[in-house]
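can u pls check wat happens w/ BMX
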Amino acid sequence: MSVSGFAVDLGGTKTAAARIEDGQVVARLQTSTDAGADMDVQVEVIAGLLAELGYGHGEALGVAVTGRVDRQGDWHAINTGTLRGISAAPLGATLRRRFGHRAHCVNDAAAAALAEARLGAGRGTYNFAYLTVSTGVGGGLVLGGRLIDSGNGLAGHVGFAGSRLGDQRCGSGRLGTVESVAGGRAIAAAAGLPDARSVFEHGGFDGIVDRSAAAIAGLIGDLTAILGLDRVAVGGSIGLAPGYLLRVLRHLEDEPPLFRPEVVPAELNHDSGLVGALLIAQEASAG
Ligand code: ADP
Ligand code: BMX
């Protein structure tokens, strides 16, 4: 099946939309995400971006969102500090009403994991994980070629696993999560700056960035112990920031060789969520 149509990736910081032809992003628009907006407002923003890209009602549309999407298509923020206005929001039904029956929604990191597994850094693996280090820390697991899912949409949310470096409660309510140490909001809070991007640009916060990378390395070791991963791809604007992956690799050297899979950057770069959302939407509407 050729991966052609439209896609949206709504993260905690930015909302991107794209027209995709044969798995390639051929046009892309981006705006910042309003973290306090409710679902109806988020859908208006999505509709505006799609209109600018020339989307016509009924065309294939994949929408990847931060937060869990359950089997009914309802959307829930897990970290309620990231999206403050989203709680049991009927996103799937709303998208279908607004854009037609070929519109479908899915978690952002799960979408990215499937795209990387099929078309990017995960090709040729048996057990593969994708991690995004972005506003939060998200994940998707493709085991034996199948994207792991669950009725409540929580499967793959590895950012809410515990870290031995964590002692803060994150917006999920869990104590000491990887996200509470390694995610963009945690990095910004630790540095006392408005966002993680400024922390990287400012320089001088090596300890904070390194702690984030160490928590990601620990998570990779833990996931490998549980799942026997062959390879892990790391994406997200922090995961892909210059020097970050090298820090993760350096910390991974503290793990015994058995717990060190191959760790590579996401091959589809910032587009894996977009491409994966469309892939999943196409498969869902093909039944
Ligand atoms: P989202 O979380 O919306 O999917 P990103 O993957 O862009 O989006 O991740 C957002 C996080 O990455 C924010 O904390 C932001 O400050 C940070 N960020 C964005 N650009 C950069 C950069 N060039 N270097 C380091 N951090 C960045
Ligand atoms: C959080 C969680 C995940 C998401 C991940 C990455 C919320 C709102 N989001 O762990 O569902 O996949 O962040 O998302 O609970 P991003 O916003 O960092 O791209």
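The first helix runs from residue 39 to 53.
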